[in-house]
Write a structure and sequence with these properties.
- By secondary structure, this protein is mainly alpha-helical.
- 57% of the residues lie in helices and 6% in strands.
- A five-stranded mixed β-sheet has the order 2-1-3-5-4.
- The longest helix is centred in the N-terminal third of the chain and has 25 residues.
- The radius of gyration is 25 Å and the shape is globular.
Length: 551
């Protein structure tokens, strides 16, 4: 049941959950007012303004997901990596596993899951603040850029425990270090750039697109001379040293990344069109599109930015690479913090004198107003049933378009955040029904990594860890000598299950019509044929061999 007592409504049919109302009324609105008052403060007293921005960012991240939603499908996989620390995985490099391990150490609660992307988002805002200052901007430009970051789709990016949040942080960190090295030519900035690149590589291989774009971008400008300096190669060496353990892991496993990319291309990237990619870029930061486009223009035409023209070329090269590779729209989101920073400095200059200075508050307020207009449909703050009242609006904005190329009832991310708790409860109930003598010899098999990850998140330590025959789970087949029962999650038992089990009992199924996993059922398989355990283990081995392109 939804609680009564709504106090804030954006339009008929929508209102915020009570916890979000409290956060907005007691913290965020006062903070918003204080930030505007800070425009009158002397520069030397603005450190606390930055701290308030960072605190607001973290607080907002805890307000954009209603408790009615579970963690996301991909979050469950990344969280499960923390139980299997290694230097590499099929789906992602190892940094996410380290973060997941820390989340487990913090108690594995959903608040801890939200913490890491929120902190990475706050650190990105910190770098944007510093980048604006490095580019010659003052307090107005810093607030303009940080408000564009704070009240934007980065809220959505930072609401999920995925590598994307650190990816954006790493790109921004690399750009900041490059700017500081161009300004000072102090070797430490290239060393830090190498650290940012190395950690970015250990987080998501996507950062290599930035590297590939920056090299020709530097060659097209006078900054090509930096590539002949020792610090440049010191930084490259640091990055390689940090990334080396994962590169060795990939080599030892015959580069399963290649299989992952081929599978991604045939199942998802094939549906990405150039027009869809470009439209997504425009919509992503629609509330501040004037700033980042202004940043691109300024990097080529504004004389004080002449030394940073390579950054503008890098934007064009990255865009071209993703268009050629059919990259997903969010792959390029690491570009925009840098563009917002330079665009804000340029806008501060354009609206510095005369009557135009009175327009300054307008540019700060635009992203806030536009976010408020779409807040209820781009963030999971309303129940799925309430979101149906905005179905046509979401469809017009393309929010209902999934990776399969079709429109559905909810945005794909929202549908991937429903039904998991019910599924885990059904599986745990099925396990508890087994005789005590059978429980130690039970295998839990799921149809995909989301199902396995959800069971291991909610039921870890309460029942055997679940596996699946996709993503990284094939590597984690449990060590067991005897198999007495199988708990199977799937729409229906496949032909193999029907052939090897003398008894199949359906325990229940997910009944949330809005969930992507709606209809997924839990079955208990007993009276298993001899030799089944070896057959299932061989299947896992065959899956691994397919990943690693081995015979």
């Amino acid at each position: 049941m939804e609680k009564p007592g709504r106090i804030i409504a954006l339009r008929p049919g929508f209102s915020f959950p009570r916890n979000i109302e409290v956060a907005i009324g007691k913290f965020l609105l006062p903070a918003f007012c204080i930030l505007f008052q800070s425009l009158l403060m002397p520069p030397r007293k603005n450190t606390w303004v930055l701290l308030l921005l960072l605190a607001s960012k973290i607080a907002l991240q805890y307000c954009v997901v209603s408790p009615q939603y579970d963690p996301h499908r991909d979050e469950f996989l990344h969280l499960d990596l923390g139980h299997h620390l290694a230097w590499g995985y099929l789906s992602v490099p190892p940094l996410s596993a380290v973060e997941a391990f820390c989340i487990q150490w913090l108690g594995n609660g959903e608040w801890a899951v939200r913490l890491f992307p929120a902190v990475f988002g706050a650190l990105t805002i910190l770098l944007v603040w510093q980048l604006v200052a490095a580019a010659g901007g003052h307090l107005y430009a810093q607030l303009l850029a940080c408000f564009a970051m704070l009240f934007s789709s980065y809220l959505r990016l930072n609401m999920l425990f995925q590598p994307n949040s650190f990816d954006v942080l790493a790109w921004t960190w690399i750009y900041y270090c490059l700017v500081r090295y161009i300004q000072t030519e102090k070797p430490r900035w290239m060393i830090w750039l190498g650290v940012a690149l190395g950690l970015g590589f250990l987080n998501k291989y996507n950062v290599m697109f930035l590297v590939v774009a920056l090299l020709p971008a530097l060659l097209l400008t006078p900054q090509r001379r930096l590539m002949a300096t020792r610090p440049f190669w010191y930084g490259a060496g640091v990055a390689l040293l940090i990334a080396l353990p994962n590169i060795i892991w990939q080599w030892q496993h015959n580069f399963p990344l290649v299989h992952h990319m081929k599978e991604l291309n045939t199942t998802q990237l094939v549906n990405v069109t150039a027009s869809g990619y470009l439209l997504s870029q425009a919509l992503f930061l629609f509330g501040s599109i004037y700033l980042w486009i202004g940043g691109v223009v300024a990097l080529f035409v504004y004389p004080p930015f002449r030394s940073y023209r390579a950054l503008g070329w890098s934007f064009l090269f990255v865009t071209g690479l993703y268009l050629l590779a059919h990259g997903k729209s969010y792959y390029a989101f690491g570009l925009y913090p840098m563009l917002l920073a330079f665009g804000s400095v340029y806008f501060e200059h354009l609206f510095e004198h005369g009557w135009k200075r009175y327009l300054r508050p307008l540019w700060v307020l635009v992203p806030v107003g536009l976010l408020a207009w779409v807040f209820d449909i781009v963030y999971p703050v309303a129940s799925p049933a309430r979101l149906q009242l905005q179905h046509h609006r979401m469809q017009r904005l393309g929010l209902l378009h999934w990776e399969d190329g079709k429109d559905h009832l909810l945005p794909q991310d929202f549908a991937d955040m429903l039904g998991w708790h019910q599924m885990a409860d059904l599986a745990l109930s099925a396990y508890h029904k087994l005789p005590d003598s059978v429980k130690p010899h039970t295998l839990v098999i799921c149809g995909n990594y989301g199902e396995a990850g959800a069971l291991n998140f909610y039921n870890h330590g309460k029942m055997p860890d679940a596996i699946a025959y996709n993503a990284d789970y094939a590597y984690w087949f449990p060590k067991m000598d005897t198999l007495s029962a199988i708990i199977l999650l799937d729409d229906e038992p496949d032909e193999l299950a029907k052939r090897v089990a003398g008894s199949i009992v359906k325990e229940g199924q997910v009944t949330n019509g809005y969930a992507r996993e709606n209809g997924t059922a839990v079955f208990t398989l007993r009276e298993l044929q001899p030799g089944l355990l070896a057959l299932l283990r061989d299947k896992a081995t065959a899956t691994i061999n397919e990943y690693e392109a081995r015979k």
